[in-house]
Amino acid sequence: MEIGPKKEVQVVIDNASNNITPGRKLEANFPHLYWTPYAAYYIDLMLEDILKIHVFKETFRKDVELTSFIYGSSGVLNVLQKFTNGVELLRPGQTRFVIAFITLGRIHFENANIRKMFTSESWTSSKWAKR
Fold this sequence. Notes:
Blueprint: E1 10-13, H1 17-29, E2 34-37, H2 39-50, H3 54-71, H4 74-83, H5 96-109, H6 111-119, H7 121-124
Parallel strand pairs: 1-2
């Protein structure tokens, strides 16, 4: 109301169930106004479906094991960061499945450095190599 209903044409809102009714009320009270659900929600649903495909599901499972191992120990994480020049594999975000694909992409991008780390003298002689 501060901006003025005639100056607004579209409102993008989170499409959580508690926001759908207010979105429809806005549209009913202001016929020229359109409310649009948040697109990230639908993208997240599509990525969730992709991760149900066996090959992606298995790859993601291995990704979770690898990142859990690396991030489960500050020592292992420090070794990785030396080999990747500080590049993080994980990137916190708002949507669960987007994070999965970003992490997979970073592991793919840093694959050579991760292999170097796990085959290096410093790794093979470390206490973590026995885990």
